[in-house]
Amino acid sequence: MTAGDLDSPLLGRIVRPADYVRVLATTMRLRSPHFAVHHLAGRPLPLKRPMARGAAAPDEPGTARAGHAPVTASLSTELSTAPTTNPVADVDDSQESGPSALVETPTPAGGLERWLGLVVPKRHSKRAVTRTLLKRQIRSVAAACAPRLEPGLWVVRQRSPFDPKQFPSAASEALKAAARAELRALFERAMRGERDRIKPRPAGAPPSRGKPGKAAKTQTEPSGPVGDTSCAA
Fold it and tell me: Are strands 152-158 and 35-40 parallel, antiparallel or unpaired?
């Protein structure tokens, strides 16, 4: 099974780093011992794609338009002191070659309303096989719950490592089952519209580490289930 097999027609993917920055800048919506969920209402930023090679800009001198003869006037040899009008390339697009154009993120028939991003850092999952396992479970659970999620951009990030004493293998059925159960509980809460009461950290303040040996307490809004909020297996 490849990662593409876990895609959902109702759930797109967040691909631009700028979109990750936007979502992760929001207050954490939900959290569990190993995962955190962020949500931002809206759509991804438009993608910037390079034009086909050999295609010239429509107003570039020396090019021909449809129905018009090519410009053949000789260029002036006089020195021009006019300031340049070439804009500085965006940092995100510094590796693109040739002219580019802004286009909207492609959507299938009916349009997408939800997009998913994953953050599984190496400091929490050192083995690549572990990161792959966790990403598969996040995509699978999110795709099953997508029809009942609020529209917008969703980012799931791993916030702490799984105990290597409890899960010594880098990838095992026990780790898969534990991660899946935890993720399903998170997304079931998300479908009910729950939010953790987390006090936003002041700008520029260092992250709180909490007291050693004590887990952070999570307060949630009491909310009963609305209809069937279980994710399909």
Answer: antiparallel
**Which residue type, as a one-letter code, is found at position 57?**
A
Residue 116 domain flag: yes
CATH of the domain at 125: 3.30.230.10
Give the separation between CA 37 and CA 28, rounded to whole angstroms: 6
38 within domain boundaries: yes
The edge-to-edge listing of strands for the beta sheet with 30-31 is: 12-13, 114-119, 152-158, 35-40, 30-31
Residue 20's CB is within 10 A of a number of other CB atoms, namely 18
- Domain extent at residue 131: 3-43+109-191
- For the segment 224-232, the average pLDDT, to the nearest whole number, is 56
- Residue 159: per-residue pLDDT: 96
Backbone angles phi, psi at 100, to 5 degrees: -135, 165
Largest Cα separation within the chain, whole Å, is 78
% of the chain at pLDDT higher than 90 = 51
